Amino acid sequence: MAATYVSIANNGFCVAKTNGGYHPVRHSVARNYARLSMPHSTQRSFGSCNKAYTGLLSLKKQVTHPRFIQKCRAAEVAEPRLLNNNAPVEEELSRSTLIWRAAKLPMYTVALIPVLVGSAAAYQQTGQFSFWRFLVSLVSFVIVNVWVNLSNDVYDFDTGADKDKKESVVNLFGSRELINTVAWSLLVIGFSGISLLAAAAASERSIVLSAFAVFCFFLYQCPPFRLSYFGVGEPLLMMAYGPLSSIAFYLLQSRASELPISGTIVWSSLLLGFTTALILFCSHFHQIDGDRAVGKMSPLVRIGTDKGSKVVKFGVVGLYSLLLGLGFFQALPLPTVILGFMTLPMANLVVGFVEKNHMDKSKIFTSKYLCVRLHTVFGAALAAGLMIARMLAPAAAAKLAL
């Protein structure tokens, strides 16, 4: 058997030398194989694997053993990326970073924007705005969205889809039952807030629409349905966060009597739902392997990342084409259309990033957060345009009177 030894380098790799040449091996692999290759007495002198590794680094000694090359080859089969200095190495994230990712705080703009656009549409219709109703609606819908995120982690944990997802809430805190109990308790609290507000506004339609929105969330992720596993999550969330939620919060701003459901709020909510669906679509790019392994047939599992990047491009083109058409036929106020088109640079950033990085899992993860930014600025532009249209209406009426 050819003699083999390991020398410790300073660049994060060990070099295993054999008659066939040098083989770079990462410290994290080599330190364990080196320890297993030592005599038992040497292992005890070093203590744990980490201590053995530290001792090797400090002493700069060489470890010899004829079976070490076999273990290096086994490591090459198990982790081929570790034998290539130029290959990307997965970053070890801190627990605080994982908790931040699990919290998904930027994602809660999907709760803010429907409330904002619905309230702005009510102001454009009536000229009135109730801040406390806006605030109660927002807090309640955020709580409902916490249920959506927590229960999604619970049920993906059950199916094994989140087996390797380090930022899963269940994986982080280790109690599936506790997370599930908290999630459903939050749904009761959030929906109760919306129901009380609907009663105060004497709006039966708003509570019905809100209930349908919650039912869409249930169909999306909860057993026995789990329709997201059949690739129909995008249309479900488009309806839930678009027309169902936005029109419900529009109606919750009514005071003396229920507001009429105008074309302005319907079209605005559809545009909003489309940008929400885009977030979900882009969130699948880095999860294709895991989704396929558990039979979750997301759109990107079916079509692949290359076609998926083209879907994103055509989707964004379709979004702004629809906005232009709505402005041309005066289905939306002109200020709304103008401000909406001012978000084009953000849309171009999303398209360019996805086209460039759709095959790079370490980078494409960011695409969903870029979509969140697009959703946020586009929704804010819609809301601002609706409010500006109302402010300009009295001036236009005064000019006509003259």
Task: Describe the protein.
The chain is mostly helical. The protein contains 18 helices and 4 strands. The N and C termini lie far apart (103 Å). The relative contact order is 0.09.
The SS-based structural class is mainly alpha
Q: Which regions have little confidence, pLDDT < 50, spanning 5+ residues?
A: 1-90
The SSE string, one letter per element, is EEEHHHEHHHHHHHHHHHHHHH
Coarse morphology:
globular
> How far apart, in Å, are the first and last alpha carbons?
103 Å
Largest sheet: 4 strands, antiparallel
Mean pLDDT across every amino acid position: 79
Total DSSP E strands: 4
Measured by DSSP, the beta-strand proportion falls in under 5%
Number of helices: 18
Please estimate the helix content: 55-70%
| Rg (C-alpha, Å) | 28 Å
Strand order of the largest sheet: 3-2-1-4
Quick synopsis:
By secondary structure, this protein is mainly alpha-helical. It has 18 helices and four strands. The protein has a four-stranded antiparallel sheet with strand order 3-2-1-4.
